[in-house]
Amino acid sequence: MSFAVVQPGTVSGMLTPPPSKSAAHRALICAALAGGGTVNGVLPSEDMRATLRAVQALGTPAEITGTQVHFGARQPLSPSEQAPVTVDCGESGSTLRFFIPLFAAMGIDAVFTGSGRLPQRPLGVYADCLPAHGMDFTPPANGDSLPLRVTGRLRGGEYALPGNVSSQFITGLLFALPLCQEDSVIRLTSPLESAGYVDMTLAALQQAGITVETTADGWRIPGGQAYRPADYTVEADWSQAAFLLAAGALAGDVRLQGLSLPSAQGDSAALALFRRFGADIATDAGGIRCRRAPLHGIDIDAAQIPDLVPILAVTAAFAEGVTHIFHAERLRIKESDRLAATADGLRRLGARVEETADGLRIHGGGPLTGGEVDGCNDHRIVMSMAVAALRCSGPVTISDAQSVAKSWPGFFIDFIHLGGNAHVFDHR
């Protein structure tokens, strides 16, 4: 257990956000399935380590040098290695949901395990549609999702699933179904949320030589395809950039480099959202500059940008007026209940926050006093509360500071680089 003590203050300077975790997951999978290629710009976070364990469990060797991963030809698993393979997904929901259909498409018996809240995160979409296509799906009897035993071989065909649940289920099928012999169709039974993540998947598949045809209500995937080796460079992460934009908007002058505009990342919407708040934002060939300015409350539909909600809520706490965040109910089943965790953290700092069924209503304008907050072992909660501390009147103590290792191990180092005053203490 560790905790961080963050003092009020200002920030300034230039920084490149870490590589996109979402893009890196997809590039690693495509290169591993191709049995060749190099992925450049992989941050060695806990989630990346989980995906690397999974691709190695498929039988694909990976050579890791710094932030570069090179894949060799996949080695078919021996009968003894298939009895069954254990896949430790850590706390990565992306790893779990991407690889379940992939192992089934390759006919590899596997047991998926995980830690933190991952065993409680739902897999019902797969439980509803995969068994009808040749896969045996055996969760534990206690109501958890993990450990999960997967056996059989996935077949193509028609897959009907809702679009208003995690897009990770759709991405997992898009990765797996090209490997089936039969053609397949994914048909959405409700409007698609988090569409940007699916767009990222489609872009990665295209680079790997995989054909996917968009239809009126989903996608058609020809079977019998093979992934083609390619080299990938992972772009900077817009979901992480949002913490830096907020730091600039609330407490200083921050310049960001390395971000793609336009970007397939749905969280690139952060730029427009901070402009709507009233932040002083300029873009040029050198990157993006965000400076403190008077902010005002806005309405935010979070259906396509759920990962941004905690830091947007922090920003809203210092914006005059009311900010209403809605269509964010999926945040209740992340590393924490992020709606409850965000509301609780801001209230402990002195903010007025109402929790709704699908979001938050924040009465902004401050001032916030500081205090002790629960990081909930959730990287996005910890980072959001660290940014909030910049504008509090007193220090903020945040538990579970070590959880930033899930996506941004160097977060507090970068925070200090910009002038933030933070000290991390390890109780072990």
SSE layout and pairing:
Layout: E1 2-6, E2 11-15, H1 21-34, E3 37-40, H2 46-57, E4 62-65, E5 68-71, E6 85-88, H3 93-105, E7 110-113, H4 124-129, E8 135-138, E9 148-152, E10 157-161, H5 167-176, E11 184-188, H6 195-207, E12 213-215, E13 218-221, E14 232-233, H7 238-251, E15 252-256, H8 270-277, E16 280-284, E17 287-291, E18 299-301, H9 309-317, E19 321-326, H10 338-348, E20 352-356, E21 359-364, E22 371-373, H11 379-389, E23 396-399, H12 411-417, E24 422-426
Parallel strand pairs: 2-15, 3-14, 6-7, 10-11, 18-19, 22-23
Antiparallel strand pairs: 1-23, 1-24, 3-5, 4-5, 7-9, 8-9, 11-13, 12-13, 15-17, 16-17, 19-21, 20-21
Task: Report a brief summary of the structure.
By secondary structure, this protein is an alpha/beta fold.
